[in-house]
Recover the amino acids of this structure.
C-alpha cells in the first residue's frame, strides 16, 4: 500500500474529509454549494458516526452526519472506489438514519426529519455524464405526484461532462474534491471555495493532525498486514488439507476468493494457488 503524506491528500480521501467536515463552517460551505441554498448547522458535524438498528444487524459507519437549524439531517459520504453498490448502500444509510430519528413515545411519523444522503465520487455511478443525480420518490403512474416522504439522495460525480442544470461553482467544488490544491482553488473563482481551501490548507499544515494521520495510516497498514497473514496461512492450511497443487479447480477458486477478501494481491494469490491471473480477475 503506497503511503501518502497529509499534504498530498484530497477531499476525496476519507481521512482529510472527516477532519475537514468536523468544522461546521466547512460543512456549511460544502452543503450550500451542493444544495444551492443557505445551510446553518445546529450541532457540530460528527465524523464516522456508527449506526446499528438492532444488536444483531450490520454495523454501519456514516462518514459525516449533521443536522441544521430546521432539523434537516445530512449524511455526506466520499467514495473513491466503484464498489457497484452505492444505490443500495444509500438506501441502507437512509433507513439506518430513519431508525434513530423517532424516539419512544413519538406520536405519528410526520415527526420524521427530512434526510439527505449525499455521495461524492470520482466516477459516474449511472454513466450518463451528469455532475449531479438527485433522487426522490415519485408515483410511476403519475410522475407529477411526489411522495414527499422527506428523503433525498444525491450522487455527485467529480468527472461529469454535462454542465446543464448545475452551477459553475458546484462543478469547481467537485474538481477541488478530486484535486485539493492551490492551483485548483485559485482557478475556481469562488469565494466559498477559496475559504474552504484556507481551512484545508490549515489542516494539511497542522503537526497534530499530521501525527494523527501517520498513526491512522500505520494502523490501517497493520490491519491489512494481519489480514494478509491470516489469508496466507489459511490458504496454505487449506492447500495442505485439500492437496492444493493437485486439487480440483473449483476448490482452488474457493481458496482464491478467501485470499482476495483478505486483501492479498492477484499476483500473490496466483503464486500460491496456481491459478491464472485472467481467472482471478473474474472472481
Amino acid at each position: 500500500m503506497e503511503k501518502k503524506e497529509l499534504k498530498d491528500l484530497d477531499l476525496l480521501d476519507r481521512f482529510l474529509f472527516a477532519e475537514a467536515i468536523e468544522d461546521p463552517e466547512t460543512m456549511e460551505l460544502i452543503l450550500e454549494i451542493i444544495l444551492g441554498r443557505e445551510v446553518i448547522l445546529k450541532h457540530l458535524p460528527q465524523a464516522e458516526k456508527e449506526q446499528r438498528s438492532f444488536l444483531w444487524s450490520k454495523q454501519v459507519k456514516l462518514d459525516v452526519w449533521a443536522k441544521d437549524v430546521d432539523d434537516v439531517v445530512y449524511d455526506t459520504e466520499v467514495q473513491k472506489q466503484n464498489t457497484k453498490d452505492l444505490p443500495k448502500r444509500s438506501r441502507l444509510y437512509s433507513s439506518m438514519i430513519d431508525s434513530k430519528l423517532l424516539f419512544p413515545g413519538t406520536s405519528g411519523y410526520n415527526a420524521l426529519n427530512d434526510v439527505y444522503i449525499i455521495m461524492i465520487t470520482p466516477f459516474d455511478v449511472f454513466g450518463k455524464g451528469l455532475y449531479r443525480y438527485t433522487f426522490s420518490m415519485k408515483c410511476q403512474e403519475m410522475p407529477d405526484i411526489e411522495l414527499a416522504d422527506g428523503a433525498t439522495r444525491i450522487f455527485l460525480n467529480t468527472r461529469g461532462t454535462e454542465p446543464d442544470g448545475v452551477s459553475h461553482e458546484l462543478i469547481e467544488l467537485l474538481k477541488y474534491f478530486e484535486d485539493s490544491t492551490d492551483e485548483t482553488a485559485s482557478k475556481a473563482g469562488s469565494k466559498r471555495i477559496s475559504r474552504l481551501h484556507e481551512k484545508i490548507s490549515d489542516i494539511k499544515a497542522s503537526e497534530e493532525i499530521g501525527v494523527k494521520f501517520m498513526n491512522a495510516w500505520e494502523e490501517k497498514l497493520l490491519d491489512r498486514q494481519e489480514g494478509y497473514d491470516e489469508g496466507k496461512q489459511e490458504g496454505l492450511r487449506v492447500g495442505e488439507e485439500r492437496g492444493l497443487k493437485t486439487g480440483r479447480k473449483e476448490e482452488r477458486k474457493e481458496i482464491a476468493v478467501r485470499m482476495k477478501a483478505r486483501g492479498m494481491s492477484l499476483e500473490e494469490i496466483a503464486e500460491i494457488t496456481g491459478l491464472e491471473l485472467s481467472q482471478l480477475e473474474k472472481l
Residues 6-205 form one domain. The mean pLDDT is 84. The CA atoms of residues 226 and 262 lie 9 Å apart.
